[in-house]
Amino acid sequence: MAATAAFSVVFLSASEGRCDDQDDIRVLKEEMRRLQAKVRILEAKQAKPQTAAPRGQVPQSAGGTPTQNGAQPTAPVQPTPIATPFAITLPDNHKHNSAINLRSSSPAAITQTAVDSLPPILTIGGVSLTLGGFIELSNIYRDKNMTSGPATAWGSTPYFNDPNAHTSEYRISGQLTRLSALAKGEIDDHRTLGGYIEADFGGAAGTANSYQISGYNARIRQAYMSYDDNEMGFHFIAGQAWSLATNYTKALLPRQEQVPPVVDNNQIPGIVFTRVPQMRLVKDFDQKYWIGLSAEESQANYAFSPTTASGDVLPPAFGSAGGTRVVYNNAGGVLLNSLTRYSFDAAPDIILKGAANTSFGHYEVFGLGRWFRSLALPYGSPSLSTKTVFAGGIGAGTTIPIMSKLDFTGNILVGKGIGRYGPSLIPDATFNADGSPSPIPELIASIGFIGHPRDDLLLYAYGGIETAKGRTYFGPGNAENGYGANNLNLAGCNIVFATCNAQLQTLTSFTLGGWWHMLKGRYGSLMSGLQYTYIHKYAFAGNNGTGQVLRPNTEGNTLYVTFRYFPFQ
What we know:
By secondary structure, the protein is mainly beta. It folds into 2 domains: about 1-45 and about 80-85, no CATH class; about 110-205 and about 215-565, Beta Barrel (Porin). It is about 10% helix and about 45% strand. Helix 1 runs antiparallel to helix 2 (about 20-45). The longest helix is centred in the first third of the chain and has 26 residues, at about 20-45.
């Protein structure tokens, strides 16, 4: 075939010449794409015989225009893949412009993988496939030992009684190395099907260790399918993705989340997020106003003082003859983690959000609804009863360009039973005396400033807070039971190796960091990041055993030095 021969000549000429001149490379690639398109058109004509239009329909020409009476109509020519199973698509990257955009308030290359700004590497039938990701090495220093990898459990920062509070730790890890793939197929000019998967190596099975080989497990970060109808303004996703409660830079579509460009895989205190399986429907109005509804996987984190495991008896309420036995979670079963407890979930978390894109920023408000469930066996009763309680909250978020090189972002969520939506994981709920869940009131909020002094430099500063109120009931001897009890003896919190029963009330944080785009070209991109985070953790007040008020608190300092290689950017 003439086109094939011409394609071969161009390819061989490029190979033998090994020309480094970028203009020649651009011309060669354009010629290869032109010839490939010509081959597809010719094969489409051969594969599709001419057909008459259905009765009552005006015959159309190949270009979509009506034919004259008596003329032989032809079927519209649709680009089809060439005969081989897949065809390599050569992107026009002769200028080596990196897909890493550090002028964004949440650069997708850092927070996710920026696949939407990359060209597809191949097509399979009518589906294009784009790869993304990076290789990472993180150096982590904490002034208090938490025996954690590149994800800090902020709420677990040890108090003075814990020996780990008296020593620092250094970790080096490649677990946040990330790989992704985006598949997209166009149904027509305005409808698209897609699928996105993103994974890292943040899993740690029973065989994972750091003695000789740091063999940690791949895990799903995101995996979802999507349908977009840009003409009607409808968008649907199903799968694991960032929660609709997460702040967004624009719209309410996946891969456009306003995620802080931080290194720590647990974000920073005060950020509202989860990343869970969900079904989401979004409607846009001229790409300016958006409304979305999402049903997302629910899990509840319970806490109670004194410590009460699932199946144990709660302390009786004042004046009661005996306590209620309560069951609220189970160990994981088939395809779940047997070492993790899973709560009873009556329904998915429901999130309804509205957003607006304006000339001066992006604004959004949302509502969150949750259901908590337990099984209770009252004292002296022969039968269990199901206790289901509704809770939730309201939230808002914004991203505002203050000036050309400085952005402001903020988010807030206030309500009851919302603890899982904050990185500090303050408990969602405790229990009433009758065994029913008692959602804990909480506030989660943060603000951030993101600067872009140069195209290759990103700077950021964030402050955040997560704080809760107590939910208790009185038992015999006027003792408080539940979460946030303020009559606990907390003297042990200031004695090494002693027992500390303090319950987390408030955690504040400050983070300062930046990214430097060191190298970029046809060989990819190299970036380095530096981040410092300070946190202050406060417990609910108790006493020191002699009647004096005691409120345990502790501080933590974390420093990251990170390197990332982006082969696709």
